[in-house]
Write a structure and sequence with these properties.
It catalyses: [protein]-peptidylproline (omega=180) = [protein]-peptidylproline (omega=0). It holds the Pfam family Pro_isomerase. This protein is of the alpha+beta class. Helix content is about 10%, strand content about 20%. Strands 3-4-6-5-7-2-1-8 form an 8-stranded antiparallel β-sheet. It is globular, with a radius of gyration of 15 Å.
Length: about 190
């Protein structure tokens, strides 16, 4: 199994047939721009609310790497219809990451945070404490991931652009050819 590949072949086991569910409702008050990740994708802009109350170390890592330009031009190397789109590996192989140390899991109780459509989680190997830079955005809910993978964000706008990310080949969804890429990633507070 690749060191940083999400779930190996578990996509089928955990419910590719899960019915679609909308992303969580937007909060009543606008989120702090310091906790909004803005991705420019080929199909448009995506805004992700970062959730430091659930995963403070993962959120800090995403902010650090984003501010370094780490995610700019990185591919979505694994995209599985009805499941998720995975990116954050500059090598595009599913085995790469940043030069920063891996992060310990920050699992929240399943009743508090769930993998719904638009949820953003930290990709990792079978070791729960191996997350680094890779992440995945859910196309559909998947309760089998609840309490197993760290949730650090949720899409609050632009899910239509996520839905249009080019799918990969076969059940593994590996490396769409050519893959869609994150054009730029910025923290909203830094955008002038």
């Amino acid at each position: 199994m690749d060191r940083r590949t999400l779930l190996g072949g578990a996509a089928a086991a955990f419910g590719l047939a899960a019915c679609a569910q909308e992303a969580p409702a937007q909060p009543a008050t606008p989120p702090d721009p310091e906790n909004i990740l803005v991705l420019q994708l080929p199909a448009g802009e995506v805004r992700i609310q970062l959730l430091p109350d659930l995963a403070p170390n993962h959120v800090e890592r995403i902010k650090t790497l984003t501010r370094r330009g780490f995610y700019d031009n990185t591919p979505f190397h694994r995209v599985i219809e009805g499941f998720m789109a995975q990116g954050g590996d500059p090598t595009g192989t599913g085995t790469g990451g940043s030069n920063l140390p891996d992060l310990a899991a920050e699992f929240s109780p399943p009743s508090r945070a769930r993998f719904l459509r638009g949820t953003v989680g930290a990709a990792r190997s079978q070791n729960p404490n191996s997350a680094n830079s890779q992440f995945f955005i859910m196309f559909a809910p998947n309760a089998g991931l609840d309490g197993q993978y760290t949730i650090w964000g949720r899409v609050i706008s632009g899910m239509d652009a996520v839905d249009r990310i080019k799918r990969g080949v076969g059940q593994s969804g590996m490396v769409p050819q050519p893959p869609d890429r994150i054009r730029t990633a910025r923290i909203a507070a830094d955008i002038r």
